[in-house]
Design goal:
4-stranded antiparallel sheet; 7 helices; alpha+beta
């Protein structure tokens, strides 16, 4: 904003100089205006450099900047055994199939109330919410020009869930697919993040931006390794599939693999 104001003031100064006669005040106004324009350009260059990793999102500041966008921020686990990846069955009726273990990050409502209000962020109501999905980072940003500021907040790791343990526990340990004792402590590593840009939603009447962090499970003990391998025996709930099956969208047995699963594959 400061850069915009500085640049506009400088342009106004140049216009004023055009109507003045050649004398000392004109030269002074020209120099001052040049300084304002230079300051605005420097602010713009700094903005570009600071957001160089988000160049594909900078267009939200220009194109459709006041249009809303649905944002989903999640984490996914890459669990590999002998070159195949473990996927868990999704039981919700809107999309039934297999997907990686994981889910949406959660945010702290009260701590973020002021920030979210200033950025025009509200819960997205395109999918019914309940006590399990409350405070999920499945949100609507009323003006997509605020998307970059939202991502800065998320990547600052302030006032939000930062540990992917919750979904690992809820999807694998709590239902008994993995024994709890060997997994009191779990090692996993951050692989990277995956973003798709702002795209038309295939199911909702709003554009979407999807952001996923990928974590790889690293079993350390023999008990953990055995338990993970034994997931092969959890018929119906867990399948192990190859990268080609994931890319194809179905297993060799005809099971549906949900589209976002490809994000866990090595790039």
């Amino acid at each position: 904003m400061k850069g915009k104001v500085s640049f506009v003031i400088g342009l106004i100064g140049f216009v004023v100089c055009f109507f003045l006669k050649e004398d000392e005040p004109k030269n002074t106004i020209f120099k001052i205006s040049l300084g304002f324009v230079a300051g605005g350009l420097i602010e713009f260059i700094v903005f570009i450099i600071e957001n160089r990793k988000r160049w594909n999102l900078l267009k939200t500041k220009i194109f459709k900047s006041s249009k809303p966008v649905r944002v989903t921020v999640a984490y996914l686990f890459r669990i590999e055994v002998n070159g195949k990846y473990a996927l868990i069955k999704r039981h919700k009726k809107d999309r039934v199939g297999y997907q990686p273990v994981g889910g949406a990050f959660k945010f702290f409502k009260e701590e973020n109330r002021e920030l979210f209000d200033s950025l025009g962020i509200e819960p997205c109501d395109h999918v019914p919410r309940d006590e399990d999905t409350e405070h999920d980072l499945r949100i609507r940003i009323n003006k997509r020009k605020n998307l970059i500021e939202f991502l800065k907040w998320f990547e600052s790791r302030k006032n939000r869930e930062i540990d992917p343990w919750r979904e690992f526990y809820e999807e694998l340990i709590e239902p008994g697919l993995l024994p709890s004792e060997p997994f009191r402590h779990v090692k996993y590593v951050f692989i990277g993040k995956h973003t798709e840009g702002i795209l038309p939603s295939p199911v909702f009447p709003i554009d979407e931006f999807r952001y996923a962090e990928i974590y790889e499970l690293r079993p350390e003990t023999d008990a953990q390794k055995t338990a993970i391998a034994n997931l092969l025996n959890k018929h119906g709930e867990i399948i192990f599939v190859s990268p080609d099956e994931i890319r194809k969208g179905s297993s060799i047995n005809g099971e549906t693999i949900l589209p976002h699963t490809f994000k866990i594959l090595p790039r």
